[in-house]
Structure formats: structure tokens, C-alpha cells
Amino acid sequence: MSKVVIASDHAGFALKDALLERVRALGHDVEDMGPFSYNADDDYPDFMTPVAKRVASSPDTIGIIIGGSGQGEAMVANRVPGARACVFYGPMQVTSSLDIEGDHSEDGYDIARLPRLHNDANILSLGARFLSEDQANEAVRIFLETPFSGTERHSRRLAKF
Q: Is-catalytic flag, 73?
């Protein structure tokens, strides 16, 4: 299994603590990169940037970052060359018009699955204010279990980042 580094800000602090045990239970080596206590005045870049740098410098490492919406956290992470963060803030209703090369599923978690499959995403950014713990657990499980497809088309696009 891969190494997983995880961090949050104050808005994601409780969810981070819950996810630490879940990711360990899935058999991954997990490193908590903070915060280690709740601080309503913390700033998410202080925690997201170190995760993104670690992931970008360690190809076998996956990052999980957690904030209120996950959006700002992903923006910070994506400023680090080699970091590819995607945002998950809840399952979506899949419609028949959303047939993405046959790669979609009916479970609503394609937002966690397709960035790994098509873009080799290496950081999952979670929006704690929009997720139940069960939804976050499922998104993390799917993200960690989904490999990059490695197809020529997706590899070619990834090389242009």
C-alpha cells in the first residue's frame, strides 16, 4: 500500500481525526501533518503546502487535505509543481448524459474516481462542511484504490501539465 499524508485546517479538523483511523484500517501507512490541536484562527495554506510538497517529491505518496469546502485547499496544493489535487464535496447524481468514455459508475463517487483514473491526481481535497463522515470515508477509499489508467491519451495530457 501507499504512504498517505493528511492535513486539515480548523474546519476539517474533526474529519481529519476520523479519517486517520479509517485510512490506517485500509492498510496504508499514514502520517498526520497537522494541525494537532483545534485552532479556529489557523490558515489552511500553512498545512496544505507541506502536504503538496511531500506528495510532489514522493511518487508513492498520496495526500488527503481537508477544509471547509476543499476548494481553497486544492488551490494552494495545485500551486506546487507535481501536485495534482482534486476536490470532493459530496456524491453526485449520475445521469445517462454523463457517460464519460464508459468510465463512470452509478455510485455517485466519480468525482473521487475519475481524477485518479484520467489525471493521476495525487491529492484528494475534501470539503468537510459538505460531507458526512461516511461519504468522506467512501471517497477516500475509492481515491486510494483507483489507479491511473496510464492510457496514451491521458498520459499525453498529463505530460502537458
A: yes
